[in-house]
Design goal:
Number of strands of chain B: 15
Radius of gyration of chain B: 26 Å
CATH class of the largest domain in chain B: Alpha Beta
CATH topology of the largest domain in chain B: Purple Acid Phosphatase, chain A, domain 2
Strand content of chain A: 5-15%
CATH class of the domain at 2-142 and 772-871 in chain A: Alpha Beta
Distance between the termini of chain B: 69 Å
Oligomer: heterodimer
Order of helices and strands of chain B: EHEHEHEEEEHEEEEEEHHEHEHHH
Largest interface: A-B, 52 and 46 residues
Structural class of chain B: alpha/beta
Structural class of chain A: alpha+beta
CATH architecture of the domain at 2-142 and 772-871 in chain A: 3-Layer(aba) Sandwich
Low-confidence stretches of chain B: none
Shape of chain A: flat
Chain lengths: 872, 374
C-alpha cells in the first residue's frame, strides 16, 4: 500500500474546511509547515482512518472533532497492487466508512465491510503492521505505553519475523517451549530459590536431615550412656557377687579371727617379758644398792683422812689472814685521820671563797639599784608628760581633719559671699570733705563698697535723703551663704573657736600635744622597755641583793681561789690513800673470814667423815660385809638378765601381730564399705538404666536412623531433581536464545546497513520477549537503550521501523512509514545521516515526513506537496 | 506325641524408621500381633509349647511397653507354654531387658538365659544355646553333644548361622555346625536368625520370622508346627503361614518391544491385597523414552493403592531415536534442547554425575513435553 493523497474535513482546526495533501510520492514525501499548522492533525487523522472503527467514540477519535462539533471526515487515496482506492471514514455524526475504487469512485465496500477491506489492506494481524511504522513527535521508545497496543505490536512483529525467518514456534518452540519452561521453572521454584538455594520441600528435607542428625546424635549420646551404665552395672554386679560370695566372706572372717588370736597370744607373751624385765630391773637396783653401800664405806674412810688434813691446813691459813688484816686496820685508821684533816681545810677555804663572792655580788647590786632608781624617776616623769599630753589631745576636737573642714567651710562662705557681692549693687563713697553720709542709718566708710539690697535710704547731710533702689539679692544665693555660714560656725563652735584663725591656733595646739605625747611615749619605752612595773621590780630585787653589801672592800678572790685549790688537792690525795687502804683492808678481812670459814668447814667435814666411817674399831668388819653383799647382788642380776633374754627371744612381734589384725580388720571394713558403695552405685545405675531404657532409646535410635536414611535419600533425590531441572532450564534457555538469534537475523540484516550509516561497527541486540532492540553494542561496550542519549534512542527507534518496513516490503507488503517531527533530539550531523538512511530505504519504501523544521529538512529532498485548504 | 510350634525373629519393637509414620504404625502393630497369632496357631494345632529361637525383641533395651504387651499377650495364651531364648539382637547379656522380662513374665513363660538342659515335659528336654552377645564368635551348641538328658527326647534351640550356609541376617560369620542335630542326637534343632523359612537338615530348620520385615525373603512368613511321635521317631514339620502384611519386591525387566504398561500391571498384586502390601518395584532393562514416561506415570498412578510403594527406575536405560525426540518437538529450540541433553547423557567423556543429570533433565523434558499432548 502506498498513500497518494490525504483529505481531512472538519478536523480540529480545519473547522468547516477541507485540508488536502495531494501528490504523495512513492519515496520520500516531506510536508514541511510551521508549528500549529496542523501536521499532527494529519498524522492523527491518518492513524484514526486506518486503526479506529468508524463507529468509535474513543479518545483518538474524539480528539479529532473541532470545538464547533460536527462530523469528522478523513479520507486517503491509496494505491495497491490491485489499483487505486479512496478510503474514507466519517466519525462522530452520521458515521460511515467507505472504500471506493479510483478513478471511477465506485463504492467497493461500506461500513463494516469497508473496515474488513481496510483490515485486509493492513495485513492479517489487523491493525498491527502499520503500527510499527509510525513515529510520533519526540518518540524515544520502541514500544507504546498501552499494554494492549504493546501486545498487539509484539504479536505483529512476531508474525512478521515468523513469516520472514520462519515460524517463531518452529524456531523457539513457541508456546510448547513456554509451557515446558514454565513447568520446569515452577517445579524448580518449588525446591529452589531464584538464586538456586534450597527451598520448599528440598529445604524441608535438608532441615529434616539436620534435625534428625541432631536428634540421632543426642539419642546416641544417651544410648552410649545407657550402654555404659549397663556395662558398669554388669561389672558392679560381678563385683558385688564376688564380695558376697560365701567363700570370700568366710576367708575374710577367718583371717580376722586368726589375727585376733595371734594378737592375744602375743599380748600374753608380752606380759611374761614385762615381768622378767621387772625382775631384772629389781636385781639391777639391788646390785647397784650393794655396790653403792660398799663404795660409800670406802669413800667415807678415805674422806675422813683427807678432811683431817684439810682441816689443819685451813686453820693455819685463817690465822695468817687474820694477822694481815689487823696490820691493815692500823694503817687504815691513820689514813682516815689524815683525810678528815684535809677535808676540814678544804671546807674552810671554800667558805672563805663563798663569802668573798657574796660580798662582791652585793656591792654590784647596790650600784645597780641606784641606777635603776634614777631611771625610774625619769620614766615616771615621762609617763606623767605623756598622760598630760594625751589629756590635751583628748580634750581638743581641733584635729587636722576638723581644721580642714573648717577651712573648707570658710572658703565656701567666702566664695558665696563674693558671688553674692558680685550680684549686688554697691555704694562706695570718696569723701572730699568731712561730711559723712549714712546708709539706712549706718555711716558709710570711705572707700568701702557697701552693698545695696532693695530700697536703701542714704542720708545726705545737708542735702537730704536719697533713696537707692536695687534689685534684691537672689534668694538661693542668700540661703546657700547662710547654710555655709551655719556649717562654718557650727564647726568653729565645736572646738570653741570664734574665728578661723582661732581654729587654726587650736589645731596647732592640739598637734603639739600629739607630738608631746609621742615623745613622752618614746622616752618611756627607752627607759622602761618592759614597762615601769618591771623596772621597779628590778630595782626592788637589786635593792634586796645589796642589803649585805659590806662597807669595806672584801679580800682578793684570787688568793682565796688559790687557797681552795691547795686544800682541794690535799683532800684528794688523802681521800685516794684512804680508799686504797680501805680496799686492802677489806680484802684482807674478807680473806681472813674466808680462811676461818674454810677451817670451820674442814672441821665439820672431819666430823661428818668420822661419822660416815663409823667407829674406827668396826671399820674393817663392815667393809668385808659390804664386799660380800655386793657380789651376791651381781650374781642375782646376771640371772635375771638371762631369764629376760630367754623369754624375750621366744616372744612374737606384737607390732607385726597388731598390724596383721589391723590389716584383717581393714580388709573386712573395706569389703563392707565397697559392698555398700557398689550396692549404692548399682541402685543408681539401675535407676538410670530404667529411666533410659524406659524411654526406648535404642528403639528410637533405630527409628531415627531409619528416618534419617529416608530423609537423606529424599534430600539427595531432590538435589538430583534440582540439578536436572536446572540443567533442563539452562538447556531450554540456551536453545531458545540460539533460536532467537537466528530468528532476528533478517531484522539484523536489514538494520545493519542503516545502523552503520550512523554508528560504524555498531550492532543492536534484541529482546526475546518484545522482539525489539534491547541494547546497542559498539566495539566491546554494550549499552542498554535506557543508557543511550535521547538522540541515539530516537534514531534507533526510526531505524528499527525502517528495518521492519523493509521486511514488510520484502514480504510483499509495502506499508508507508509516517514520521511526525520524529527527529527532534538529533543534532544536525545526525539528521543528515538519518536523511541518508531514509533516502536509502525510500528507494523501495514510501516515507511520509511531517516536519516544522523547514530549513533543516530541505536537505532531505523528496516530494514536497503543499497542504491545500478549501472551504466546505 | 510331643507337639510344639517353632518360631523366631519376632523382632518386637522394631521401629521401621525409614517408612512414613502411618506405615510404621502398621508394621509395628503387625509384629506385635504375631504373638497372639502364634498362640492361636498353637491352640488350633494342639501344640503344648511355642519355642522362640531368639530375637523375640529387636533391641537389648526395648521400650517397657513392648515387653509388657508381649508378656501380656503370652499370659493371655494360657493354654500354651512359651519358651523364650535370647538371640543376637536380644542377647542374654541384655540384663535390663531380661530382668524386666523375668519380672513381668507370667507362669506360662520360661526364659532360658543359660546353656543348660530344660525339661519341657517328662519326655522331652530342651537344650538351649542362648547367645551372650551380639556376635558370639563360637558355636554355642557344642555342649549339646555331651549334655546328659537320659531317655528323654532331645530338642535343640539355637540362634545364628550354620557353618556351610551363610544364613546370618546380618552377614556375620557362620558358626553352628550343620550336623549338630545328628552329632548331638537331637530329635529336632530349632534355629532362629534367618528370617526366611528354610530346612537345613532332616531335623534342622529355620522357622523364619512370622512377620516379614523386609524385601529380602520371598517366602510367605510362617511358623513351623513340629510333631515328634517319640524317641527315634522323625520330626514331622509343617509350615504354617503367618504374616499379615506382604513385602513384595517386583523386578520388572523390560526390553525393546515389550509393552511396559501391560508388564507393569501384570506384575502388581491383586487389588484386594495392595492395601496390606509394601511394594518395592525395581525396573530394569531398556525402554523408549515415551514408554518410560508412560510407565513412570502408571507407577505414580497405582502408588496410592499400596500400604507403601516405591519404584526405582535408575536401572532402566532409556532408548532414544528420532521418533522419541519427535514426541518432544519436530524442530526448534525444544527439540534442540532435547537433542543436546541426549548427547550429553550419552557422552562417555563426561563425568557420571553430569551424564545422569542430563538423563534426568531429559526425562523431565519428556514428561513436560508429553503433558501437553493429553
Amino acid at each position: 500500500m502506498r498513500l497518494r493523497a490525504l483529505h481531512l474535513t472538519n478536523v480540529r482546526k480545519f473547522t468547516g474546511r477541507r485540508a488536502s495533501i495531494n501528490g504523495i510520492g512513492s519515496g520520500i514525501t516531506v510536508v514541511s509547515e510551521a508549528n500549529e499548522f496542523g501536521k499532527s492533525t494529519f498524522f492523527d487523522a491518518i492513524h484514526a482512518l486506518f486503526f479506529e472503527k468508524y463507529g468509535s467514540t474513543a479518545r483518538p477519535v474524539k480528539s479529532l472533532q473541532p470545538y464547533a462539533g460536527g462530523g469528522v471526515e478523513v479520507a486517503a487515496e491509496v494505491e495497491t497492487e490491485a489499483g487505486a482506492f479512496l478510503v474514507e471514514k466519517r466519525f462522530m455524526t452520521r458515521k460511515m466508512a467507505r472504500v471506493l475504487r479510483l478513478p471511477d469512485r465506485t463504492i467497493l465496500a461500506q461500513d463494516d465491510e469497508a473496515e474488513r477491506w481496510i483490515a485486509g489492506l493492513l495485513g492479517p494481524a489487523g491493525e498491527g503492521p502499520a503500527g510499527l511504522l509510525w513515529v510520533r513527535q519526540g518518540l524515544l521508545g520502541l514500544e507504546p505505553a498501552g499494554v494492549r497496543e504493546k501486545a498487539q505490536l509484539t504479536e505483529t512483529r512476531r508474525d512478521l519475523l515468523s513469516s520472514v525467518a520462519g515460524e517463531i514456534d518452529a524456531m523457539t518452540g513457541g508456546r510448547r517451549m513456554d509451557r515446558v519452561m514454565r513447568r520446569c521453572s515452577d517445579d524448580l521454584a518449588e525446591i529452589t530459590t531464584k538464586t538456586g538455594r534450597k527451598s520448599g520441600v528440598w529445604k524441608a528435607a535438608a532441615d529434616e536431615v539436620e534435625a534428625l542428625e541432631a536428634e540421632l546424635g543426642a539419642l546416641q549420646a544417651q544410648l552410649a550412656t545407657l550402654e555404659g551404665a549397663l556395662a558398669q552395672r554388669k561389672v558392679d554386679e560381678a563385683l558385688l557377687q564376688r564380695l558376697d560370695h560365701p567363700e570370700a566372706r568366710a576367708r575374710r572372717d577367718e583371717a580376722l579371727r586368726a589375727a585376733q588370736a595371734a594378737l592375744e597370744t602375743a599380748r600374753a607373751h608380752a606380759g611374761l617379758v614385762t615381768a622378767a624385765r621387772q625382775d631384772r630391773d629389781i636385781a639391777d637396783l639391788q646390785a647397784r644398792g650393794a655396790r653403792q653401800k660398799l663404795d660409800d664405806c670406802l669413800a667415807a674412810i678415805a674422806a675422813l683422812a683427807t678432811a683431817t688434813a684439810m682441816e689443819q691446813a685451813a686453820k693455819a691459813r685463817a690465822a695468817e689472814a687474820e694477822s694481815a688484816a689487823a696490820v691493815l686496820k692500823q694503817r687504815l685508821d691513820a689514813a682516815r685521820h689524815d683525810h678528815d684533816t684535809a677535808r676540814e681545810s678544804l671546807a674552810r677555804a671554800r667558805a672563805a671563797l663563798d663569802t668573798a663572792r657574796h660580798q662582791a655580788d652585793a656591792r654590784k647590786a647596790r650600784d645597780l639599784a641606784a641606777q635603776l632608781a634614777a631611771r625610774i624617776t625619769k620614766a615616771e616623769a615621762a609617763q606623767a608628760d605623756r598622760a598630760a599630753a594625751a589629756a590635751r589631745v583628748k580634750a581638743s576636737p581641733a584635729s587636722a581633719d576638723w581644721l580642714a573642714r573648717v577651712e573648707a567651710s570658710a572658703s565656701a562662705v567666702d566664695r558665696l559671699e563674693a558671688a553674692l557681692l558680685a550680684q549686688t549693687a554697691t555704694l562706695q563713697v570718696v569723701y572730699s570733705g568731712a561730711l559723712r553720709i549714712s546708709l539706712n542709718g549706718i555711716p558709710v566708710a570711705e572707700g568701702q563698697p557697701v552693698p545695696l539690697d532693695g530700697d536703701s535710704v542714704v542720708d545726705l547731710p545737708g542735702i537730704g535723703q536719697m533713696t537707692l533702689r536695687s534689685q534684691p539679692k537672689a534668694a538661693k544665693g542668700i540661703d546657700d551663704l547662710a547654710k555655709a555660714k551655719d556649717l562654718r560656725d557650727g564647726l568653729l563652735a565645736k572646738a570653741g573657736a570664734a574665728t578661723v584663725e582661732a581654729a587654726r591656733r587650736l589645731a596647732a595646739d592640739r598637734a603639739e600635744a600629739v607630738r608631746q605625747e609621742g615623745l613622752s611615749q618614746a622616752l618611756l619605752e627607752t627607759l622602761a622597755p618592759d614597762g615601769l612595773a618591771a623596772l621597779q621590780a628590778a630595782w626592788a630585787e637589786a635593792a634586796l641583793a645589796a642589803a649585805d653589801a659590806p662597807d669595806t672592800d672584801p679580800p682578793a678572790l684570787a688568793d682565796l681561789l688559790a687557797a681552795q685549790a691547795a686544800a682541794d688537792l690535799a683532800e684528794d690525795r688523802a681521800s685516794k690513800a684512804l680508799r686504797a687502804l680501805e680496799a686492802d683492808h677489806g680484802a684482807a678481812r674478807e680473806e681472813a673470814v674466808k680462811a676461818r670459814a674454810a677451817a670451820d668447814t674442814a672441821a665439820q667435814a672431819v666430823t661428818r667423815a668420822a661419822a660416815a666411817a663409823g667407829p674406827a674399831e668396826t671399820r674393817d668388819t663392815r667393809q668385808a660385809d659390804l664386799l660380800r653383799d655386793e657380789a651376791q647382788a651381781r650374781a642375782l642380776l646376771a640371772k635375771a638378765e638371762a631369764d629376760l633374754a630367754r623369754i624375750a627371744a621366744d616372744a612374737p612381734d606384737l607390732t607385726t601381730t597388731e598390724a596383721e589384725l589391723k590389716r584383717a580388720e581393714d580388709a573386712a571394713r573395706a569389703a563392707a564399705q565397697q559392698r555398700a558403695a557398689v550396692a549404692e552405685r548399682l541402685a543408681a545405675l539401675s535407676a538410670q538404666i530404667r529411666t533410659l531404657a524406659g524411654n526406648g532409646i535404642e528403639e528410637r535410635c533405630d527409628d531415627i536412623r531409619g528416618q534419617l536414611d529416608t530423609a537423606r535419600a529424599t534430600e539427595a533425590r531432590l538435589a538430583r531433581k534440582a540439578a536436572a531441572l536446572t540443567r533442563l532450564l539452562a538447556a531450554l534457555e540456551g536453545e531458545r536464545k540460539a533460536s532467537q538469534e537466528t530468528y532476528f537475523g533478517p531484522v539484523q540484516q536489514e538494520l545493519k546497513p542503516l545502523l552503520s550509516i550512523l554508528h560504524r561497527d555498531a550492532a543492536l541486540t534484541f529482546d526475546s520477549e518484545s522482539l525489539l532492540p534491547a541494547g546497542l553494542t559498539r566495539g566491546q561496550a554494550e549499552e542498554t537503550l535506557e543508557d543511550l542519549s535521547g538522540g541515539t534512542r530516537e534514531q534507533i527507534a526510526i531505524l528499527t521501523r525502517l528495518a521492519f518496513a523493509r521486511l514488510f516490503a520484502r514480504h510483499g507488503r509495502h506499508m508507508p512509514i509516517v514520521l511526525d517531527d520524529a527527529l527532534v533530539y538529533s543534532d544536525d550531523d545526525r539528521i543528515i545521516k538519518m536523511f541518508t538512511a531514509l533516502t536509502r530505504v525510500a528507494q523501495d519504501q514510501q516515507i511520509l515526513v511531517f516536519s516544522c523544521r523547514q530549513l533543516a529538512f530541505q536537505d532531505l529532498g523528496g516530494a514536497r506537496p503543499a497542504v491545500e485548504i478549501s472551504e466546505v | 506325641m510331643f507337639k510344639f510350634i517353632h518360631a523366631s525373629d519376632l523382632h518386637l519393637g522394631k521401629p521401621f524408621g525409614r517408612f512414613p509414620e502411618d506405615v510404621r504404625v502398621r508394621l509395628r502393630q503387625a509384629r506385635a500381633e504375631s504373638v497372639p497369632r502364634l498362640a492361636a496357631l498353637a491352640q488350633e494345632t494342639g501344640a503344648s509349647h511355642i519355642l522362640l529361637a531368639g530375637d523375640t525383641f529387636d533391641q537389648t533395651t526395648p521400650a517397657p511397653m513392648v515387653i509388657r504387651q508381649a508378656m501380656n499377650a503370652m499370659r493371655a495364651a494360657e493354654h500354651v507354654s512359651w519358651v523364650v531364648m535370647p538371640g543376637n539382637h536380644d542377647h542374654a547379656n541384655a540384663t535390663e531387658l531380661w530382668r524386666q522380662v523375668l519380672r513381668d513374665a507370667p507362669a506360662n513363660v520360661t526364659v532360658l538365659l543359660e546353656p543348660e538342659p530344660h525339661v519341657l515335659t517328662p519326655e522331652a528336654v530342651l537344650l538351649p544355646a542362648p547367645p551372650g552377645e551380639r556376635h558370639p564368635g563360637r558355636d554355642l551348641t557344642d555342649w549339646f553333644d555331651s549334655a546328659a538328658t537320659g531317655e528323654a527326647l532331645r530338642i535343640g534351640l539355637a540362634h545364628g548361622s550354620v557353618t556351610d550356609f551363610d544364613s546370618s541376617e546380618e552377614g556375620g560369620s557362620s558358626i553352628i555346625a550343620v550336623d549338630r542335630a545328628r552329632r548331638a542326637g537331637l530329635a529336632y534343632l530349632a534355629l532362629g536368625d534367618w528370617h526366611g523359612q528354610m530346612q537345613i537338615g532332616p531335623q534342622t530348620w529355620y522357622s523364619g520370622a512370622p512377620e516379614a520385615d523386609g524385601f529380602k525373603h520371598t517366602q510367605t512368613p510362617a511358623a513351623l508346627l513340629v510333631e515328634i511321635a517319640g524317641p527315634g521317631a522323625a520330626a514331622q514339620v509343617t509350615s504354617r503361614p503367618m504374616g499379615s502384611l506382604a513385602w513384595q519386591r517386583v523386578l520388572l525387566d523390560l526390553g525393546e518391544g515389550d509393552d511396559p504398561l501391560a508388564a507393569h500391571e501384570a506384575a502388581l498384586p491383586a487389588l484386594a491385597r495392595r492395601g496390606v502390601t509394601l511394594l518395592d518395584m525395581q525396573v530394569s532393562g531398556r525402554l523408549h523414552a515415551l514408554d518410560r514416561v508412560a510407565l513412570e506415570d502408571a507407577s505414580r498412578q497405582v502408588a496410592p493403592d499400596f500400604l507403601w510403594h516405591d519404584a526405582d527406575f535408575s536401572d532402566l536405560a532409556t532408548l532414544r531415536d528420532a521418533t522419541d525426540l519427535e514426541a518432544i518437538d519436530h524442530q526448534g529450540a525444544l527439540r534442540a534442547a532435547a537433542e543436546a541433553l541426549a548427547r550429553e547423557a550419552a557422552d562417555p567423556h563426561l563425568p557420571t554425575d553430569a551424564r545422569e543429570t542430563a538423563q534426568a533433565a531429559l526425562s523431565h523434558l519428556f514428561s513436560y513435553a508429553l503433558e501437553g499432548r493429553e
